[in-house]
Design a protein that fits this description.
By secondary structure, this protein is an all-alpha fold. The protein has 2 domains: 54 residues, Orthogonal Bundle (Arc Repressor Mutant, subunit A); 134 residues, Tetracycline Repressor, domain 2 (Orthogonal Bundle). The chain is built from 10 helices and no strands.
């Protein structure tokens, strides 16, 4: 077995800076995520942040990569024979992730971010990780189609319908403008309607 590779001090510092950026994001929100705030949180000079990420946008992109990786991990369901329940678990996990990580979610989906900042933050790496999260849902939808739970169609198209619907529901809930008393029950009805509609 090969010896495990050691992380270089540079990679250690990069990881520490992203850790610090996540703490700033959670504490101060996306608008508070500045190079100076992260440098202070990490105990380094601002130039250390610029040297590794190039700009504030590069730093934000690195944090959002972690966000999409966390979302992908949360919606990846355990193996099980019940395709309907797998879809429900996937949908519930999506909502749970968003509610537990509202600052990440805001940045990941551009809520309250100017188009210019959004464009500057969207690196190739970030786009790959966002696509990978979507692909987890596509795989789940494809599995449900193979099981006969969803009608045969383009899995990516069906996954986009699901993602758009659950994102809309979660965004309304995060904005505090949901109009029903039982938010969880309302979300469950949405999941049931989606599965029935695509079934």
């Amino acid at each position: 077995m090969a010896e495990p590779t050691q992380r270089t001090p540079s990679r250690d510092l990069e990881g520490a800076l992203v850790d610090a950026a996540e703490r700033v994001l959670v504490r101060d929100g996306l608008r508070g995520l500045t190079v100076r705030a992260v440098a202070t949180e990490a105990g380094v000079a601002p130039m250390g942040v610029y040297n590794r990420f190039g700009s504030k946008h590069g730093l934000v992109a690195a944090v959002l990569v972690r966000g999409f990786d966390g979302l992908a991990a949360s919606i990846r369901t355990a193996d099980g024979p019940d395709a309907v329940e797998r879809l429900r678990v996937c949908g519930r996990s999506y909502r749970r992730f968003a509610l537990a990580n509202p600052q990440h979610y805001e940045g990941m989906f551009g809520t309250g971010v100017s188009p210019a900042d959004r464009a500057a933050t969207t690196t190739d790496e970030l786009a790959r990780h966002a696509t990978a999260a979507f692909d987890v849902l596509v795989a789940e939808v494809s599995r449900a189609m193979d099981a006969g739970v969803l009608r045969k169609d383009d899995p990516a198209e069906a996954a986009q319908v699901i993602w758009s619907a659950v994102h809309g529901a979660v965004a309304v809930e995060l904005a505090g403008v949901i109009q029903v008393a039982d938010r969880e029950a309302s979300y469950e009805r949405l999941l049931a309607a989606l599965i029935a509609g695509l079934g």
